[in-house]
Amino acid sequence: MFWSRSSSKPAAAPEGSVPPQGQPAVRDKGVSQAPRAGDEAEAAIDTVGAMLRTLGKHAIQVADADPAQVACEFEDWARHVLVRAPRPGRAAPTHGEVVRRDWAGLRVWLQGHRKAESESVEKAIADLRGALWALVRCFARALSEDGESDGQVNVQLQRLKGVVELDNPEEIKREAVAIAECIGEVLVSRKARQASRLEELAERLKALDNELEDAKRESATDPLTRLFNRGAFDEHLSRMLDMSCLTGQRICLLLIDIDHFKLVNDKYGHPGGDAVLRELADCITRSFLRRGDFVARYGGEEFAVVVSEVAAEDGVKLAERLRLSISRMVVRYNSAEIRITASIGVAAVVAGRPAAEWLARADRALYAAKKAGRNRVLCDDDVRAGASESPRKSA
Fold first, then answer.
1. Which of 143, 147, 176, 188 is the most exposed place for a label (fewest CB within 10 A)?
2. Do 132 and 92 share a domain, yes or no?
3. Which residues form the catalytic set?
4. Last residue of a domain, one of 155, 185, 214
5. Domain of residue 71, residue span
6. Percent of the chain with pLDDT over 70
7. What's the confidence (pLDDT) of residue 85?
């Protein structure tokens, strides 16, 4: 229940009287006086209490937290604010002791709880996407082994691709169920030799909830540049290869390497080199802002970009635009201005070929750009005929 607070109304001024200096005269008896500061404070306290109860009633499930306990904590804070009950975790006051409202403690507790809710939602969405990608990979292998496909399957796979990028878990679940049912109908109509694969997919769907509950994601972020790290890049490259096999999507891989980066470290020290790496990471991110673009730190002074819906020639144009942006960068470190250039290798995906081969072709193009004088872009298609050189061992 809520506790009501009575407030006395201000007495009306005698008709015809002169108001005190600095206060407006009341010209119409029907116009209400401005609320007193005390009344507004009481109304604000009531509002905070009501908000705490609403948040407790509709709290988001947080891992390892009892919903009933969370609701009790919100209720205890609401009572603390409304009637000065002891704040959660504090003993009852002694006789005559005045309980003061702990606004700072409430703010810290509420911020921590909200952060935990946000992390729980992000993890649930990430785990759901991981399970859906596993489903895509499983179905891609089934089609690859059969060597057959049809228009209906391709349409559903395109929808499945869109589902993975959604941010609303309920929409993801609804769309995943609808797509699974359609794919199931297609598979059921196939030949008897596919019966075992159909069972495998059905079991995969039934186990989806368990996978979401048990899945644990390792950190996928490079601590220096805040880009995806090498592990996340390898996983994404494999996923994009599966998607290309299923839908025929055009995808380009760009490998970027800073020219003569050792000289930067030798002259400015590793802190100066780190400043260059962070600035370059920001430059690459600003150059690839589409939702489907994937930017990662490949290792050391090397970076990688995976660009969807882009043919090889367009990938070269995007890489050239990035190269020019890098050459115009000015990294300010202490009193120095550091300028760098970069070499870039480009390779388009080839459906059905291993991810390691795709990466090796981009690396071969990068090596050729380095050998040709650095600060340039080369595509694997352009160097393939003369690619008798061994893969590079160092920059």
1. 147
2. no
3. 301
4. 214
5. 37-101
6. 67
7. 87
pLDDT of residue 213: 44
3-state secondary structure the chain: CCCCCCCCCCCCCCCCCCCCCCCCCCCCCCCCCCCCHHHHHHHHHHHHHHHHHHHHHCCCCCCCCCHHHHHHHHHHHHHHHHHCCCCCCCCCCCCCCCCCCCHHHHHHHHHHHHHHHHHHHHHHHHHHHHHHHHHHHHHHHHHHHHCCCCHHHHHHHHHHHHHHCCCCHHHHHHHHHHHHHHHHHHHHCCCHHHHHHHHHHHHHHHCHHHHHHHCCCCCCECCCCCCECHHHHHHHHHHHHHHHHHHCCCEEEEEEEECCHHHHHHHHHHHHHHHHHHHHHHHHHHHCCCCCCEEEEEECCEEEEEEECCCHHHHHHHHHHHHHHHHCCCEEECCEEECCCEEEEEEECCCCCCHHHHHHHHHHHHHHHHHCCCCCEEEHHHHHHHCCCCCCCCC
Question: 381 and 272, same structural domain?
Answer: yes
Most confident of 20-24, 149-153, 229-233: 229-233
